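Re: beginner question about structure tokens

> Can someone show what the tokenized structure looks like for a real chain? I only ever see the sequence side.

Sure, here's an example I had lying around. Input first:
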Amino acid sequence: MAELQCEPDSPSRLQPVFDLLAWAGYEDAHKPHDSTSDKLAGGLAWCLATLNPSEPKRDVVYFQTLNPDHQMHNIEEALRSIKCPYPLEAFQIRNPESEIESVIPVVQWLRDRVRTFREDRKDEVLNQLQLIRERIAKEDAETKVQMLVSHLRSLKDLEKQELEFQSSSNAIHSKLQTEINELKEKIASGCDSTSLWDGLNNPLSDSAEQLNSARKELAVKLRAILAVKRKLDDVPSQSELVQYERRFSELYAHIQGKHQQTQKYYDTYNALLEIKELMLKETSLLNSISSQFQVAITSTDGRMKLIDSMEGIAKGSQQKLDKVRFGVQEQQKVCDALKERYAEAIAAQRHWYSLLKAFQDECAKNERLRGLSSG
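And the corresponding structure tokens:
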């Protein structure tokens, strides 16, 4: 009598596999001219390279340089090295249509690993951004303040030196003016021109040298003052530091919002994809039973084989249901843990608000006491 047969293989059976690879980020999952085994091997190689970009033998370009047999054997070894819970051998990758039951669990597992890997990378980027923000708010601000204080002290010293130099210049000018007056008196009294020129030449040369030296020193000090002023202009003010902090806070909030929105889309797509897979399996099963039921029911052997097949299907469905229930329980544990952390955070926030209120009250009380004591 006739036995229970499966539907003939067709390329459409692998469509869920290529949908999973496309969702994971593999752009060539729906290339029309590539064979199914090439697209599957390329998608698996891409997932492995994404999960471990530091491993050269898992690079996509490296896989493309190998012949097909070596590609599939390397993929088999790479899956074992990352401890994939579902075995997949090279001949199953070479003939995916007939080995779809072995291919789908591996692709689903890789898809989940890729999603987890990307979420971890996003969390790492957010943590780095937070560390940068804290560093700017703490270390960099203190360093800038210290630099500002140092530059201000240098500027005050230079201004003091400039005042001292100006006083010295005024004293020298007064001395020279006195000598000029004395020279005028000598000329008026009829002093000899030769002796007068000799007496005038030496002080004049000395004065010219002193004047040139003073000009050079003044130019050096002015350049130093201008350099300090430029450094002071480069140091951000308190209002600019506050603006930087506000901008980083807004950027962090924007990234958090985008991350939550993207996570929501991923979860929705994942749920709809699982529903689609279950509906396709249910439709395929019902069509198979409908097409073979009349043939199998006509004999005792056919009925027994039909019963055994239905029991196997029921057992598989029960295993799938147990797996889903286990996943729900794990998600519930994670949800409970997050609720506990949220409750602890709320309690800490309330405690902080109470401390802040007490501190503000004490500050106000202190201000009142200071006002009374000063009055």
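Each token stands for a local structural state, so reading them left to right follows the chain. The two ends are 113 Å apart (CA to CA).
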